[in-house]
## 1
Amino acid sequence: MIITKPKQLMMNSSKKLKIPLSVPTIRGNELKYIKECLEEEWVSSAGKYVDKFEKEIAGFTGSNFAVACVNGTSALHIALLLVGIKPDDEVIVPVLTFIASVNVVRYVGANPIFMDCDEFYNIDSNKTIEFIKNETIFKNGFTYNKKTNKRIYGIIPVHIFGNPVYLDELFEVCKERNLKIIEDAAESLGSTYISGKFKKKHTGTIGDIGCLSFNGNKIITSGGGGMILSQNEEYAKRARYLTTQAKDDGIRYIHNEIGYNFRPTNIQAALGVAQLERLSEYLEIKKKNYEIYKREIDKIPGLRLAPVPTYANCNYWMYCLQIDKDVYKKDKEGLLIDFLKNQVEVRPVWQLNNKQQPYKHCQSYKIEKADELSSKTLNIPCSVSLIREQIDKVLDILKQ
Ligand SMILES: Cc1ncc(COP(=O)(O)O)c(C=O)c1O
């Protein structure tokens, strides 16, 4: 396979490489399909590529239904409406996730309850079960929070950085307690379980609904885009209805509900279809680069590359460097500055959501691991287009 040098690398001198964190790789039929949309004048939020993208994502993930959205956030927003989360309900969410997973809870007027994470940065299943068993009661078919007396009607497990959330027992508890599961699989397209109850299943196909994102930094992109996955035809039909302005009569423009303009354009979908053609190749590259990084980083005292779960095949979307500052003699912030000085883009994990201004007042449950991991983790360059020279540059900075 020919690996072309990323533009950034060609534009800079070899001394000062600019290495981005996660950028798209466009090396397939992207232009061809987009040109076709333009030539056929199908540029807006309908067209053959939207249908094709949905069908192909459904086929790839093994989902019965897939409904395309303008981005991952809108997919999650609609998902919460579909399962029937109501204003004043509560929804269990991980404290460590991109804020979009939490904002959508507020979009529907509900409130988040923050859960700690496990060693894979994912919502801690055991602690969540402990919370449900000890801190809630089950009454008239619903789960109520003992502290607030509010109904808890859902949970959003987020497959952080592509690592599938351990769901085996949590899934059962949620079913017993009538808690709707909305999987945020924005980062985990291509990740599957290899053991346990959900063996061979793709993330996003286990809960009541799953949502994907095709933002520019994801493993494949449609520029901006999202997808609602469901096994339930009613959810899929309603998702299509709500995302197209709840149009009941397309000729007379009759709308019996308040809908949303959440469909992607044909151009976005064309880009997505071309990207999806390369996904298997991208998954292999991501894994191979993870292994190179891991072999070298784990040799450096005080550093390690975060492991991935053994119960799953990950898509290795984002690589997490963990720093033991006492051994390495430098902390996350120090290393961040070193990278930036060398024009290498790295990123600390998101500020925890219980510390974000709009959510400081919300309930949190035993947040410990998330604090620890966020204090010592940097995401390091992981684009599919990463070449060995760039990986070596990252390693050199770490070794200095
Ligand atoms: C975990 C998670 N959830 C939701 C989103 C929202 O997706 P989008 O940016 O496509 O709206 C993202 C990423 O962008 C994400 O990483």
Note: Residues 71-73, 97-98, 100-101, 158, 184, 186-187, 213, 215, 226 surround pyridoxal-5'-phosphate (CB under 6 Å).
## 2
Amino acid sequence: MSKSLGRRDFLKGAAAVAAGGAAAIPAVAAAWTQEAAPATPVLGPGPVPFTLRVNGKDHAVNLEPRATLLDALRGPLGLTGPKEVCDRGACGACAVLLDGVPASSCMVLALDAEGREITTVEGLAGPDGKPHPLQEAFVREDALQCGFCTPGMVTSCAGLLRRNPDPTAEEVRDALSGNLCRCGTYPRIVKACRSAAAAMKGGR
Ligand code: FES
Ligand code: FES
């Protein structure tokens, strides 16, 4: 139901149909059609200019409205940390932080990410290029084999540590439930996440 044709109006119309029979139907239909007209302009199908804020910088892009955030990051922005694996929200390899919260970038339209703070794994390192404690911990704990899931794992762990700086192993496993590792390095990933949490608490 459109926002402008409220529940009360609809019920009134339905009551009129019940009372007045078929003669009332065209009036109700006309009101519906008139009020249901889209209030916002239609964008696309061609490219649309807009801005994405990624890793602290604004980037002007020109993309079709159907482009996903993952398309934008790996394409014009050249950020290949987020990986395209399933392209349907099932593996977490494309995880980024949207306003600090992990999200599968293959499931977000780039246009819908305008005005949000987007952080990719590339943006986790410090301004001096020093790796994030999570990145150091993944290396220290040898928490990867082929490494394809790693950027998504690190990013999801970063989202977890923002809201829970001292997670239990169970909480790490729960936070990573949307991230798949075909190499089965889960125990080391959990260890790395908790090791990074300890390092961050100790100011390292
Ligand atoms: S590529 Fe996005 S969730 Fe798998
Ligand atoms: S390290 Fe290979 S998929 Fe995770």
Note: Residues 48-124 form a domain with the Ubiquitin-like (UB roll) fold (CATH 3.10.20.30).
